[in-house]
Amino acid sequence: MKTDDLIDALAAGLEPAKPAMPSPVLLAAAAVAAVAAVGLFLGFRPDLGQALQGPIPWLKGIYTAALAGTGIWLAIRLGRPGVDPRPAVFALLAVVAAAGLWGLIEMSLTSPEQRMDDWLGGTWTICGRNIVLVSAFAAPLVFLSARRLAPTRPTAAGLALGLATGGLAATAYGLLHCGEATAAFVATWYTLGIAAAGLIGAAVGRFALRW
Fold first, then answer.
1. Which of 58, 75, 170, 178 could connect to 64 by a Cys-Cys bridge, CB 3.0–4.6 Å?
2. Please, how many CA atoms are within 13 Å of residue 110, restricted to the half-sphere of its CB?
3. What is the dihedral of CA 127, 132, 133, 139, to 10 degrees?
4. What are phi and psi of 99, to 5 degrees?
């Protein structure tokens, strides 16, 4: 048998490989871990049932869940060699920019003497810390979910997974514990907390994603 015939015979039974994806089961478990961490270490807000009937917690959740989703999308693209990650990067930046614009519009409509209070709220000093705390419990599951991926830039992939983890943590924190209600607060302090989780993820990814 000629070499070309042998190659054709070997290739005849091959099927295209399905693109690798993070494990949805482990991602769901990470979300559950974030909820559990809020309940165990921070506590649920006493007016939770009433608060969830209003729009504010859900608007916060839409923003932070969007960051989690775009972080996962970015990790997927970084985990497929040769795939351009820029669409996911642009989507991530667009989500942050939309929140920032929303916050600026809100601040412009607020009286000058009230702006600082609306921006800082009552928990700006602990908001980011709490998000990072909650993300620490979700992060192992998020990183394990990505074991099917093959990132060639582990630091960048770790950053993306860290942002996804921070987004999950901030969603649980914002829905179940935090009572801050202004867009300016969320756009600043929630975003910084998620960014901190992303930086931690980048440091972890540099070593943990070399499989």
1. 170
2. 17
3. 150
4. -65, -40
Residue 79 carries which DSSP code? T
User: Quick one: pLDDT band at residue 14, thresholds 50, 70, 90?
Assistant: very low
Calpha distance 188→128 (Å, rounded): 10
The answer to whether 159 touches 195, Cβ cutoff 8 Å, is no
Specify the amino acid at residue 73. Answer: W
Q: 58 near 195, Cβ under 8 Å?
A: no
Read off the pLDDT of residues 160-210 as tens digits, 9 standing for 90 and up: 999 999 999 999 999 999 999 899 999 999 999 999 999 999 999 888 776
The percentage of the chain sitting over the pLDDT mark of 70, rounded to a whole number, equals 90
CB distance 92 to 63 below 8 Å: no
pTM for the full predicted model: 0.89
Three-state secondary structure string covering 50-70: HHCCCCHHHHHHHHHHHHHHH
Spatial distance between the Cα atoms of 88 and 95, rounded to a whole number of angstroms:
11
Of 119, 113, 202, 114, nearest to 166 by C-alpha is 202
